Amino acid sequence: MATKRLARCGAPAGGGVEFPAVLLNTSTGEIESEFHTYVQPQEHPILSEFCTELTGITQNQVDGGVPLNVCLSQFLKWIQKIQKEKKIIFSTDLLSNSTSEAKACTFVTWTDWDLGVCLQYECKRKQLRKPDIFNSWIDLKATYRVRRLID
């Protein structure tokens, strides 16, 4: 299971400034691989005091980051590497790469904000193609709510 979170700071244009993910083995609870980069804000390059206080992310960190298109490219290279090494497959790959030895993997987020709103909006605004791998995820907050209603 991979998890991803985009830290954002409420700038008028929105946008994520941090792009972390981990590959978590749900059988062992071990983190098997990590990805992390800061994303340089393009429209509002200076972080607000609110953003720094909210996230703990500093101006120096985002200044040393990369534009979103570079971040996505780096992330996809990381995903491809761990897919090969760990023999994992995402639901968006099932039709083209189905093998009996592949282990299922999915993104897990807390709400639909990261993948369903923020990344989609940022890619559209920046005229980037959102990679298909981000079209399927588990919203852990919604799952938790449903589970609480059942119990």
UniProtKB/TrEMBL annotation:
SUPFAM superfamilies cross-referenced by the UniProt entry: Ribonuclease H-like
GO MF annotation terms: 3'-5'-RNA exonuclease activity; nucleic acid binding
Keyword tags: Exonuclease, Hydrolase, Nuclease
CDD domains according to UniProt: ERI-1_3'hExo_like
Sequence ranges assigned to domain Exonuclease in this UniProt record: 17-145
InterPro entries: 3-5_Exoribonuclease, ERI-1_3'hExo-like, Ribonucl_H, RNaseH-like_sf, RNaseH_sf
Record protein name field: ERI1 exoribonuclease family member 2
Lineage of producing organism: Eukaryota, Metazoa, Chordata, Craniata, Vertebrata
